[in-house]
């Protein structure tokens, strides 16, 4: 065969990605389980150098060796089924890439299975939706490093670019790429939750949707410059044709989700990584959709009506901007910390700076801040983003504003689970001493779980039910 790359799955993402490959000059083989989609793509895009096949065998044969095949099919069983149909026709050394939103343990399992058969398997997180697939997404490939040399240049060419640098790089072995994509989505949940809280607070001081659209557009010219802030302005400016009201006021306030945010939080819990601001963002969506819970609580609970009283409205709006920036930084810090810990835990050897670098364009969380974050990680071996000098300084400068916003919102009864959780994290991780001493004391009291002391080595237990003397415990529970 002569095609340089093959795409399996001609739904929205696959067809756009295939067009992207073709537009960059790659002869592209295309295939879909049911031929109708392939035929439709061939017909709609005569300009593209496609090789369409009706059978898997024909498709695999149309590719030059070692083959490069990227699957863009539904995550889960459909991906396993697609791999199974490819296997009989593959040769040793061929490379199969899964570009779907796959849960990373599945990628680890598939990579192992494929390696045992002599095939290379790459799990590649792809962000940017339909437009990204067509014009340049952010790509997060993980798998055998040697095989990246063969596919990397092609992926880098079709990926988004930031200052001429591709938003695609080898992330790490087996599931690393899909893990990083998962955390990207977790951060995306937090980003969006914070934007929602910021808008709620603007409304609470009497800002209209149209005014808020201008405010977000203004914020987008500064430190908050990002895709999500930009489209927030667009959403706020939209007027509903039917009612003449701002569209935002007629959209049902129950948020959907597809699972990647939940996976991020589950993984944070598995690894014991504090990522509460991201978790609050997932829980906020769950709360929004818990109709029965909300109805029952609305009927029973009282409190302030959500109006924020301020003397200086402009100053408060600036405070909200600072709070939004600060909370956003915390979500990035939590997500990147999760990536760092997972990289150690799973032996992925992840370069955190590179993750931030390839998120600068193409993906949903693309933001000016990511350039600074990637530079900070590249400059020093950071345990947390929060210790980076420019970040710590920024948070310090914004701190009074952030606290004022949390206090005002709390007084007024405006729910701000994201802003408040992010601020608690800030105070928790910088505290010299946490309240965990109490937890340890209580655990020792009711369960003889023992504790350590600040002034000497060893594990201790107090005889709470007897004479209350302390003894050194031999066997820590
Ligand atoms: P879908 O997720 O809707 O999947 C449709 C494709 O999967 C079709 O090609 C379909 O073939 C194929 N397929 C199914 Br369903 N079951 C199959 C099976 N048992 N065997 C073989 N093929 C099967 O497509 P999409 O929205 O283009 O997304 C593709 C992937 O990209 C997904 O994993 C998605 O999560 C991921 N992704 C999506 C976005 C986005 O913004 N939409 C962004 C980033 C990543 P058929 O035509 O024969 O039914």
From TrEMBL:
> Does the keyword section mention NADP?
yes
Any one Gene Ontology BP term: D-gluconate metabolic process
Q: Which residues bind substrate?
A: 101, 127-129, 184-185, 189, 258, 285, 443, 449
The biological pathway it contributes to is: Carbohydrate degradation; pentose phosphate pathway; D-ribulose 5-phosphate from D-glucose 6-phosphate (oxidative stage): step 3/3
Mention one GO molecular function.
phosphogluconate dehydrogenase (decarboxylating) activity
- What keywords were assigned to this record? Gluconate utilization, NADP, Oxidoreductase, Pentose shunt
Residues annotated as binding NADP(+): 9-14, 32-34, 73-75, 101
Catalytic activity, as annotated = 6-phospho-D-gluconate + NADP(+) = D-ribulose 5-phosphate + CO2 + NADPH
What is the main EC category here? oxidoreductase
Q: Which residues form the active site?
A: 181, 188
Q: Which regions span the lipid bilayer?
A: none
Question: What are the residue boundaries of the 6-phosphogluconate dehydrogenase C-terminal domain, all occurrences included?
Answer: 177-465
Regarding protein family, the annotation reads: Belongs to the 6-phosphogluconate dehydrogenase family.
The annotated subunit structure for this chain is:
Homodimer.
Q: Which NCBIfam families match?
A: gnd (TIGR00873), PRK09287.1 (NF006765)
- The name this protein carries in UniProt is 6-phosphogluconate dehydrogenase, decarboxylating
């Amino acid at each position: 065969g002569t095609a340089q790359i093959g795409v399996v799955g001609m739904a929205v993402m696959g067809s756009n990605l295939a067009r992207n490959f073709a537009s960059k000059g790659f002869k592209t083989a295309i295939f879909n389980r049911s031929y109708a989609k392939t035929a439709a793509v061939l017909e709609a895009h005569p300009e593209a150098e496609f090789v369409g096949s009706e059978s898997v065998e024909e498709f695999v044969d149309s590719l030059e060796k070692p083959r490069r095949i990227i699957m863009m099919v539904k995550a889960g069983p459909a991906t396993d089924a697609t791999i199974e149909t490819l296997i009989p026709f593959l040769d040793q050394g061929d490379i199969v890439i899964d570009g779907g939103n796959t849960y990373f343990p599945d990628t680890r399992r598939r990579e192992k299975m494929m390696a045992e058969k002599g095939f290379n398997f790459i799990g590649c997180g792809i962000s940017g939706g339909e437009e990204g697939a067509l014009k340049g997404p952010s790509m997060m490939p993980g798998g055998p490093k040697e095989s990246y040399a063969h596919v990397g240049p092609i992926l880098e060419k079709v990926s988004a670019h930031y200052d001429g640098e591709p938003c695609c790089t080898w992330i790490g072995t087996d599931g690393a790429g899909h893990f990083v994509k998962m955390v990207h989505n977790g951060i995306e949940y937090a980003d969006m939750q914070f934007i929602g809280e910021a808008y709620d607070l603007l409304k609470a001081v009497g800002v209209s949707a149209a005014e808020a659209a201008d405010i977000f557009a203004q914020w987008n010219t500064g430190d908050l410059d990002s895709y999500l802030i930009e489209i927030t302005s667009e959403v706020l400016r939209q007027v509903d044709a039917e009612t003449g009201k701002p569209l935002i006021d007629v959209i049902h306030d129950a948020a959907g989700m597809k699972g990647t945010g939940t996976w991020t939080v589950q993984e944070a819990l598995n690894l014991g990584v504090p990522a509460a601001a991201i978790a609050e963002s997932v829980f906020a969506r769950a709360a929004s959709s818990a109709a029965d819970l909300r109805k029952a609580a609305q009927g029973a609970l009282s409190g302030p009506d959500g109006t924020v009283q301020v003397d200086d409205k402009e100053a408060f709006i600036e405070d909200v901007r600072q709070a939004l920036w600060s909370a956003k930084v915390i979500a990035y810090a939590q997500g990147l910390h999760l990536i760092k810990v997972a990289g150690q835990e799973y032996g992925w050897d992840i370069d955190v700076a590179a993750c931030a670098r390839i998120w600068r364009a193409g993906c949903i969380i693309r933001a000016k801040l990511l350039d600074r974050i990637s530079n900070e990680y590249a400059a020093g071996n950071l345990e947390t983003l929060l210790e980076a000098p420019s970040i710590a300084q920024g948070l310090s400068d914004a701190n009074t504003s952030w606290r004022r916003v949390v206090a005002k919102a709390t007084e007024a009864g405006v729910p701000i689970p994201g802003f408040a959780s992010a601020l608690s994290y800030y105070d928790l991780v910088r505290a010299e001493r946490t309240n965990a001493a109490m937890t340890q004391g209580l655990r020792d009291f009711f369960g003889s779980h023992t504790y350590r002391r600040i002034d000497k080595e060893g594990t201790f237990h107090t005889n709470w039910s007897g004479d209350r003397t302390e003894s050194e415990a031999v066997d820590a529970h």
